[in-house]
Amino acid sequence: MNEFKTLIEGLRGRRKLNIYQRVLRLSLLGSLLTFAVMSGLYVYAIFTINGTLREQTIDLGDTVFTYIEDEMNEQVKLRMTETTQVRSYVINLELENAVKDVQWLSDFVSMNLKHPELHMPHTLPNALYEDIYSGTPYIFFSPELVARGIDEKISREIGVASACEDLLLTMSNKYDCIVVASKNGYVIRIDKLPDENSLVPLCTEPLKSSYDSRKRDWYLQGEKVSAPIFTDLYSSSTTGEPCVSVLMPYYDNDGVAGVIGMDVSPSDIYEQVNASSLEGRDTIFILGKNGEVLFSTSKDEDLAPYILDRDLRNDDDETLAQAARRMVNGEQDIVKVDIDGNEYFLAFAPLKSIGWSFGTLIDQSEVHLVGEQVKEDVGEYIVGYSNLLESFLFKVSAASLLIVAIIFAGLFRRSLKESDDFVKPINSLIDGVQEVAGGNLNKKINLATGDELETLADNFNHMTGELSALMKNLAAKTAAAERTKTELAVATEIQDGMLPKNFPVSAEFNLHASMTPAKAVGGDFYDFYMLDENHLVITIADVSDKGVPAALFMVMAKTLLKDNMLTDGKPENLSAVMSKTNDELCDNNEADMFVTLFTAIVELSTGEMTFVNAGHNPPFVRRDKKFSPLGRAKSPIFGTLPGLKFPAMKIQLHDGDAIFLYTDGVTEAMNDKRDLFGEKRLQVVLNKLPDAASEKILSDVNEAVKNFVNDAQQSDDITMLAFVLRGKA
């Protein structure tokens, strides 16, 4: 105590100090100086760490944004590629159906001409002498034929060829114009006009007095081929809109007898995929063989449709022109293009049936919106953690300074070394923070100081680990959510577009149907259509799977069955049609899916119903105002094995009788106690409707199922179809 007092007086200059005291004074001054220097370095280091964290937060956010943006770009490319492939597949399917239709019509007319004795001649109205309106089959003579005169041979030929009248009526639902053009100068034709009360073009001038199909480019092109071909784009004489025709010759015993043509509208083709995968944010277009835009949802001048003298391959935007050249060459890819200074993703796939290409375009800024949101979220997380770290650093600083101030007198000889040892881990922290801010989230800071700095390093390591996991999890969830949303949107819209919505209004019967999927995409479908004026086909089915694969399989099954029905769908041929459809479905069933199906042909004039139940739920039939099950399935399920037989059965329906078709989503609907709705409960509900029309039957059954299920989640797709006969039977 006396030595310390003497030292203080010596520092003030009031008394002289001995050597020991001078050494002590020098040591004290050295310790104070060391303390001051090291304290300054410590404070500098603390503020450096804090400043580095603040400065690098923006860089780290940019790094995260770049990572998320790259990942989102890849996911968008994958999603657009898959969406474009699905859409091009559906369009190709429609074009292939057009090829099948023209082949069928050619075979039918050729058989009539080669074997006229097997067919009764038909008489059609002549557009030269009668007013013909939309949707009516008619005949037309060229000026040359009128001048030459109609001899007996040509008259017989016209009568036999006109036997295709029923086929023309059936096919006119799908095509704006169908022409059977003879080499002898007459045409058999049907036109479907926008206005049903409009006269057909050949009833009006100048075509009425000058039209000769044999001088048209499409006829000259069609008579030279032996298989169906598609023409280039031209203006339809029926609608005035751009269209293409599928052509094929037909034959008599002497060879080519003429050419058959069917108009196919690009707009009608696109309506088969009438949904946008990104809620209207993408652009859909079809590119022709000469680089022309045939159809487009874009309002941009570069992609405006129906400008036939413009070739997109010569566009001022070179990236778009190069992509257009690849599309015309039949390639499939996804690329970046520049249009008017904006960057887009363009996915394209060929329409091989016709030589066109289908494209999907999306502005890259749509992808940036997601990345910017992720950047903002990560930035907020880093700033919050930086503030927490700053508070922690200052608390450590205060505690350290207090400890050094208490013990500095006994440790002044080691102050420099201790200060150096203390600064090293701080520098390690600074280096680690800078490396992490540079984007290396795997960086670990290893400190073994045993004090708060080691705890700080451990906390920092924990922070980087959590941040890395957060980024990966956020990217994965964002990509998965977008992908799932796109798939479900595409599948839902395709499936909904394939189901008929216009229920027929007829004095002979009434019919209604509905499909309520358990999730966004269902595995059920229904269908109904007229084979002719007297035969109605009704179908209900349940595909074995859900999601996009089930939606595609549904399209395939529905399309194959309908095409075969329209081709040879007579009651006596129902078993053969079902066997043929099953074989075709098995040939394309690489996913090993199957479908349970009930289909029937109702002869409206007699009430006789011919049906096949391929492993489906037994329908209910109403006779004498009472519903009862029609009986269990007698045929195997669809799509499992080729070569199976599907025996047909018949029942007689009378006026007021009804058929109720349904899938197992009705009888297997469960309430919160996991009780099933069941067939008995369904029969009770139906028997409360002894005279109800089809729409009333569906609404009451649907209401009963909803009341039974109550708040329980729907467990399966619910599909129903009700048919009530009001005919003469």
Write up this protein.
The strands form four sheets. Strands 1, 2, 3, 4, 5, 6 and 7 form a seven-stranded antiparallel beta sheet that branches. A five-stranded antiparallel beta sheet has the order 9-8-12-11-10. Strands 13-22-21-18-19 form a five-stranded antiparallel beta sheet. The termini are far apart. Helix 12 (452-498) packs parallel to helix 13. It has 729 residues and is an alpha+beta fold. 46% of the residues lie in helices and 19% in strands. Among the domains are: 106-268, 2-Layer Sandwich (Beta-Lactamase); 499-725, Phosphatase 2c, domain 1 (4-Layer Sandwich), CATH 3.60.40. A hairpin with a 2-residue loop joins strand 10 and strand 11.
Notable traits:
single chain, 729 residues, alpha+beta, Beta-Lactamase, Phosphatase 2c, domain 1, seven-stranded antiparallel β-sheet, 17 helices, elongated
Under the CATH scheme, the architecture of the domain at 499-725 is 4-Layer Sandwich
Radius of gyration, in Å, reads 40 Å
The helix/strand class is: alpha+beta
Helix share of residues?
40-55%
Strand segment count:
22
CATH H-level superfamily of the domain at 499-725:
PPM-type phosphatase domain
Strand content: 15-25%
Q: How many strands, what sense, and barrel or not for the largest sheet?
A: 7 strands, antiparallel
Determine the N-to-C terminus distance: 128 Å
* Highest CATH level, the class of the domain at 499-725: Alpha Beta
Examine the coordinates and then state which fold CATH places here, giving the name of the CATH topology of the domain at 499-725: Phosphatase 2c, domain 1
Unreliable residue runs:
275-279
The chain-level mean pLDDT equals 81
Shape assignment: elongated
Counted by DSSP, the helix tally is 17
